Amino acid sequence: MSAKKTQDSLDFEVETMIFRRLLVAVDEDDSTSSIRAFNYAVTLAKAYRIPLAIVTILETSDLNVYDSLSPDVLAKRRSEVLAKVNQYADKAKKFGVADVTSLIGEGRPGRVIVDQVIPEWQPDLLVVGSETTEKSRIFIGSQASYMAQNAPCSVIVVRANDQYAPKKA
């Protein structure tokens, strides 16, 4: 008999898995997948009593070249994006999450979240929504695959159109 365990061996103890810091990515346009991911994240953060950070990304590629070079336009867009994230933060607090942080970034959502936001905030779980249909813009939901493959933490992808989700009564 080999001292090496086989891959199909179930000779291990089940251990409780607890997350200590949670990050949820939301689109500034309140897509269905973002709202569902947010709902899941606040439910988990409240139940675990853990800090929650909410992030959205200002997609500078959506701005025309003149707007992207205008400090006033950029400042206005940053302010709008931060206001949106703060609305999500207020909802999380009202739901019962005690420790909520608002974060924004700029650029391509998947890369900014993986390369900048996660290393800075250091969550051990990222929750992100995913649309099931193609979009013409680069929504955070369309970046779920990139984040799941490249994030240094665990990632939960919440579908916008989950056909198996419980229906409201």
TrEMBL record:
Gene3D superfamilies in UniProt: HUPs
UspA domain segment(s): 19-159
SUPFAM superfamilies hit by this protein: Adenine nucleotide alpha hydrolases-like
InterPro entries named among the record's database cross-references: Rossmann-like_a/b/a_fold (IPR014729), Universal_stress_UspA (IPR006015), UspA (IPR006016)
Xref: Pfam families: Usp
Similarity annotation: Belongs to the universal stress protein A family.
PANTHER family: STRESS RESPONSE PROTEIN NHAX, UNIVERSAL STRESS PROTEIN UP12
Name the UniProt record assigns to this protein: Universal stress protein UspA family protein
